[in-house]
Amino acid sequence: MKAIAYYQNLPIDHAEALLDVELPEPIIGEHDLLVEVKAISVNPVDVKVRANMAPEAGQPRVLGWDAAGVVRAVGAKASLFQPGDRVWYAGALQRPGANSELHAVDERIVGRMPDSLDFETAAALPLTAITAWELLFDRLQVLANSQPSGKTLLVVGAAGGVGSILVQLARRLTGLTVIGTASRPETQAWVTALGAHHVIDHRQPLSRELKRIGIEHVDYVASLNQTDQHFAEIVEALAPQGKLALIDDPAALDISQLKRKSLSLHWEFMYTRSMYSTDDQIEQHKLLNELARLVDAGIVKSTAAERFGAINAANLKRAHALLESNAAKGKIVLSGF
């Protein structure tokens, strides 16, 4: 089968940073589905793994943790899907990724694709939606209640993949006042269109920007990138007993700054359930099915923003380069081999 892989950690402009390869078809486990991949999207995790995680010597490593496709076969103990079902998922970090014509994935982290979306548009959503959902409802423990709560959420980096979903979920499924950060006119317009009540500029001190729009403190902060650069301002912006959740990988944080306000710190990593085979990993199956319902009802929309053509090494290299530039808006999607 066709796949895109790498053999060593190389800069994305290197000729062999990503390569078109031929690999054997995957063998599925008892809880697995064999999926014919129709479309994928590209995430910062792809860039991080390609740059930092070396494959086993001489072995190709396949990236890709967002996919939409059709079930071709099911494992002996698989019971949630049948061949022919249209599915979407983000996969497991410790297994080969979905940048391949066929892909094996545990059915307990797979959902039914929305009826209203094509494969390409659907592929933009799973990883970022799972991350945003878990961050909002599991880590920050915000209540799903559309009645105004009087509480505020600041989303730092709201125009990116996770932020684009988080803003929608917070605005439509909770009673929070949602404030997003974005630095360019086009990304500020994007975040506003997604439903943020306010948009502020993260190139300026966050606490000062909040005061500019009449908000003294916020109850929750979702920090999605450059947390180390914004950390002091986040602490200043949070109300006493507030909550901070993050998804990025700051080199160091002085968490002693949280003490005087009794602030809590939460880390969201959507691969935890699959990585440790937790008893509740099927929650991601349920979450994706509920997300499909919300999409079909018009409550949540896809964040596919850049379409890069066929799934091949050249187009994936372009996608990685754009993500590394930190200038991406929404999600980059590719479809077909």
UniProtKB/TrEMBL annotation:
Cross-referenced SMART domains: PKS_ER
Stored InterPro entries: ADH-like_N, ADH_Zn_typ-1, ER, GroES-like_sf, NAD(P)-bd_dom_sf, Quin_OxRdtase/zeta-crystal_CS, Zinc-ADH_QOR/CCCR
Compartment(s) of residence: Cytoplasm
Superkingdom as given in the UniProt entry: Bacteria
Keyword annotations: Cytoplasm, Metal-binding, NADP, Oxidoreductase, RNA-binding, Zinc
Domain Enoyl reductase (ER) residues, every copy: 13-334
GO molecular function: oxidoreductase activity; RNA binding; zinc ion binding
CC per GO annotation: cytoplasm
Similarity-based family: Belongs to the zinc-containing alcohol dehydrogenase family. Quinone oxidoreductase subfamily.
Assembly behavior: Homotetramer.
Protein known as: Zinc-type alcohol dehydrogenase-like protein
Biological source species: Chromobacterium paludis
